[in-house]
Each structure stands twice: as C-alpha cells, then as structure tokens.
Amino acid sequence: MGSLFLNSPTLATNKLAKLSGKFQWCFLRRKKMSSSSIVYCQGGGKAIRSSGFSSVLTERSSSTLVGDDHAAAVIDAGSLVLSPNGNKGQSEISIKDFDSYGGTTSSSLVEIQEGIGIVKFLGGKGFFITGATGFLAKVLIEKILRTMPDVGKIYVLIKAKNMEAAMARLKSEIINAELFKCLQQTYGKSYQTFMLSKLVPVVGNVCESNLGLEEDLANLIANEIDVIVNSAANTTFDERYDVAIDINTRGPCHLMSFAKKCQKLKLFLQVSTAYVNGQRQGRIMEKPFCIGDCIARESFGDFVSENTPRFPPTLDVENEMKLALNSKETFQENDLAQKMKELGLQRARKFGWQDTYVFTKAMGEMMIDSLRGDIPVVIIRPSVIESTCREPFPGWMEGNRMMDPIILYYGKGQLTGFLVDPNGVLDVVPADMVVNATLAAIARHGMVQKSGINVYQIASSVVNPLAFEDLAKLLYEHYNSTPYMDSKGSPIHVPSMKLFKSMEDFSDHLWRDVIQRNGLAELASSDRKLSLKHEFICRKSVEQAKYLANIYEPYTFYGGRFDNSNTQRLIESMSENEKKKFGFDVESIDWRDYITNVHIPGLRRHVLKGRGMCS
Ligand SMILES: NC(=O)c1ccc[n+]([C@@H]2O[C@H](COP(=O)([O-])OP(=O)(O)OC[C@H]3O[C@@H](n4cnc5c(N)ncnc54)[C@H](OP(=O)(O)O)[C@@H]3O)[C@@H](O)[C@H]2O)c1
C-alpha cells in the first residue's frame, strides 16, 4: 500500500495529514474474502400505463480480441475516451493547491453528532429515477430498498414499446438481478410483492419532450415525487453526435422541464462524470459549469502550437444542439453514422474535451444550470465506477467496462503488456461508495431545499491514487495465486505485465508476443515468411490490442486529478452511524484488497460467470 504513494509525495502528505480523521469504512484489516461470503442485509404493485413509446436504440462501440472467450471479449465502451490528453508525463503534472470550491456542507458540532439524517429524510419520499436498468442506478435502488424500506414509490423510467414490455424489463433486469439477493433473502416469498409495491415502471424516453409521458401520467407522477435522479446516459465515447447530444444534453433539459411541474420536489440530482472536466490539467475542483464554459478557452495560450487557432473558440450549447440535428440532413445516408461520429469527436476536441461522451455530458450540466431556476440541484461526478466494495456484497459488477477487458485478457494470457504511463493514476471508485455519496447528498440538500447547485466529485486520484505500475503488480499477484484455467483445465501462468509509454514499443511487443504465443517464433526467426493465414491472425490480434490502447489513452495518460473537498465535507457532516451505513471514504480503500480480493474475483464471477475458474 505504501508504495502506491511513492510517486505522489504531495498526495502522501495529504493522506498522512488526514489519518486522524479515519473512520469505520476501512479495508485495512480485512481478510481475504470470497465474493459470496459476506452478505449485509437489513432490512403487489401496479405498473402505470402510458402510450409513450420508445424505439431509440443506442449504438455501442465494441471490439474483440482474438481469444477463446468471445462472449467476454465484448467491450462496453462506456466511459471510454478517445483522444490523447496531452503528452505530459504524469510525473510532470503539478497538483496545484487551490481553495476548494464553495459548496454548502460546512457543519456545526451539534449537526455532526446528529448527522445528516439520511434515513429520516428518505423515509416516505417519492423518487423518479432514470437509467434504472443500467449498472449504477440499480445499485442505488437496491440500497434504498434494503436500508429504507419505508421509502415512498420509486417511479422508474424505462424505454419500452408498451407497459407490458416495461414491466417485463423491470422484472428481468432489476427485480430478478443477482444484485438484489439480500432483499430476496429478507423478504422470501413476499419479495416480488414488496418490490412491486415500491417500484413503478413508466414507459418513457429522456429524449422526448415531456419524457414521452402522457400529460395525465406526468401530472400524477409530478404530484408524488420528492426527488429526481437522472442516471440515464449514453456512455459510448465516440457516439454519433446527434444521439449523444439527444440523451446527454437534451435529456437533462426535458427532465428539468418536468421537474418544474413537480409540486413538492426537493431536489434534482444529476449523475454526471468527473471526466466532464475534459482536458483540464492538474488538480480539478468541484466547480459547476455555467452555460458557455469552454475548456479550450480556459487553457487558451497555455499550449501554443502551430495548430492553435488565433482566437479562442466560443461554445454555444443551443447552437451545438441545432448543429447535431441539422447536420443529419447534410450527410449521405450510407456514411451518415460514421460522419456523425466524426462530427462529435471534432466538436468535442475543438472545445477542449476528449470525446463526444464527456463533451455532451458537460453540456448537459450547463443546461441544467441555466434552466434550474430555484430548484435545488446536486451534480454527482464519479470517476470510473467499478464493482461494489462492500454492499450488498463485495464484487458485484455488470458488463465488461473500462479497465476490465484489459484485466481479463491479461489473466487469460492474451495481453502481456499495455500502453500506459507507469506513474500515471487510474481514478477508480466502487459503485456502492458512489451510491452512498449520492444518498448522503440527496438527504443533505433535499432537507435544506436551498436553491443552488452543489457538485461532488467521487474520485480517488487526489486522496488515494492508484498508480498504474502498482495496479500491474496487483494483477500479477492475483493471477499468480489464482490463475485462470485453460480449456484443458491447466492453469494459465502469466508473466508480470509490461508497461509501455510509446505506441511504437507497445506495437513491437505485441508482434513478438503474438508470434511467440502462436508457436511461430522459429518460423519468424528464419528468413521464411509467415503464411498469409498466420500473418492475418497475428495482425488482427495486434490491431485489436492497439485499438484498445488508443481508446484508453486519455485515461492511461490523463493529466487531471479530481479534487473531492466537497465530498469530504459531506462525509464530515455525517454521524458515526451514518458513516458505517453510508460510508464513501475513498481514501480508506486498500487497493491491494479491493483489486485482488474483491474486484477481480467479482469480475470473474459476475462478468465471466465463473468460466476459467477451478471447479
Ligand atoms: N459506469 C461508469 O464507470 C460511470 C462513471 C462515471 C459516471 N457515470 C455516469 O453514471 C450514470 C450511469 O451510468 P451506468 O454505467 O449505469 O450506465 P449504463 O449501465 O450504460 O446505463 C445507462 C442507462 O440509461 C438508460 N438510457 C439510455 N438512453 C435512454 C433514454 N433515451 N431514455 C431513458 N433511459 C435511457 C439505459 O436504458 P436502456 O437499458 O434502455 O438502454 C440504462 O438504463 C451515467 O449518467 C454515466 O454518465 C458512469
């Protein structure tokens, strides 16, 4: 653990200074556990009919690496970004000391003893949640229902062609998900009845005006809900510009219009991402976006090159929305999708963001700020969300996301190195911590109901950085002690992971490796050429690994570090009991324990479904 801080003296000092404030959410003494060994449990409805109809299907980028496990090789490109984030080595990045950005979380001693009153606030409250079939909102719903069973109705907006289809999705993707096994154990035979008494599926789509809801239905919901949580998003890094803008920028506008109809609304919570900070460098504060903010303007003049325009660009969000829509008319049908993808990336980079996903999410934040009026708003900005670290059980994960394809390919011996700055930092946070922070922020600001906007970055890169070279060692440790089994049941032994700072070196390594693995080394060392078939197989494998490296580059060479002062103040305002039940102290994560005993076993169990494990 100590070695994690060797590369970041500033951060190490920061951590030491904070040691006295530690509390229960701690892994330091936890023994190795299996993902199924610990369960923390505490603890007949109607669907609403709407003629709202959605046929919007989102495209997802995917890629496969050559290997025997194609099912596992599909990459959810969610949260991946495309462009390199500058060429600075991580060791050169200075973490400037800024004053933290405002926020309204300072607390008196009496308040701290009493805490925020999370459970008290949420009891009986009505929710409207979007993105509930997705990874994060599911963890949120599970936590609410497990810890606050007296919560009011939770309306979940689901894309479906009719109510029956929405109900079917609610059951198969949420109620029957393994994530909810604690609640299933708690309620036994009455589990379905309990769940359906709380969860109300609503057919709709954030891209449509009025969310695709009929007026009567919209009014009914508007009268009942206290909190809106918008977790719906398109997380594909290079999505078509029109598609991404529709969901990530226009979606929040539609939700904000709906929020204005809600008589007793106490809070609007937007789930954003820490990477809305685009190509900002150094320590990045939890500062809200205002309409027209433009990262390229902030750094204008910092990086002057021949490609630097003479005048800083001006971002007009309304104009971008029109552009995305109107551009559709200008492209030919046969290359429309590709052109719209290129347009998104081009616009993002022009204004200082690395890809379409984070750019359109940032514009979503801007629109929320400009439309919110008196509505209290919280913006949650997690970095990369990975498997749960503790609740409802350690290691729950859905999909093969972000760093996970690399972890899995490495374990299977298919990828022995990667393009990454060894001293760089991977900013990861466990899903349950994100959810706990979300609930604490909802209660804190929902209770006060003060008009304003509060931003919380749930991130580890400043308070508890995980260096890539340390991550590589942890992966090696894990697979050395618990290797994958090949198709014959023999353990796959992996070498320690090699880290390359240049694409050229990485590419050379890939060629050597693939030739070796395919038993072609002798052939390649003689003057004889590889057969066309061999060359095709090797080239495909190399190209796919390079593609992966390219899309990860903005992360593996990321120049920003996410400050989380507001989030820490939120923790400070919690009672000891709340810290135990709703902890999100990212600083206390023991990465060795999380990566080797929680996250990778979770991936192997929930994503690979146990394939390649000892029987
Ligand atoms: N995962 C991460 O690492 C990460 C990191 C930082 C921030 N975030 C943010 O966290 C939030 C949740 O992410 P996630 O990982 O849970 O995403 P996810 O698994 O991809 O889920 C996205 C959800 O949004 C819904 N959705 C998409 N388009 C919609 C539309 N037009 N109308 C209504 N619903 C729509 C999806 O519904 P369908 O099932 O019908 O497609 C799904 O329920 C997002 O806002 C994301 O930006 C995620």
Automatic annotation (TrEMBL):
Lineage: Eukaryota, Viridiplantae, Streptophyta, Embryophyta, Tracheophyta
Keyword annotations: Lipid biosynthesis, Lipid metabolism, NADP, Oxidoreductase
GO BP terms, alphabetized: long-chain fatty-acyl-CoA metabolic process; suberin biosynthetic process
Species the sequence originates in: Manihot esculenta (Cassava)
Catalyses which reaction(s): a long-chain fatty acyl-CoA + 2 NADPH + 2 H(+) = a long-chain primary fatty alcohol + 2 NADP(+) + CoA
Class of enzymatic activity (EC top level): oxidoreductase
Gene Ontology MF annotations: alcohol-forming long-chain fatty acyl-CoA reductase activity; alcohol-forming very long-chain fatty acyl-CoA reductase activity
Chain ranges of the Thioester reductase (TE) domain: 129-438
Domain of life the protein comes from: Eukaryota
Protein name, UniProt field: Fatty acyl-CoA reductase
All residue ranges annotated as the Fatty acyl-CoA reductase C-terminal domain in the record: 539-609
Record carries keyword Lipid biosynthesis: yes
Record's function text: Catalyzes the reduction of fatty acyl-CoA to fatty alcohols.
InterPro entries associated with the record: FAR, FAR_C, FAR_NAD-bd, NAD(P)-bd_dom_sf
Family: Belongs to the fatty acyl-CoA reductase family.
Enzyme Commission code(s) on record: 1.2.1.84
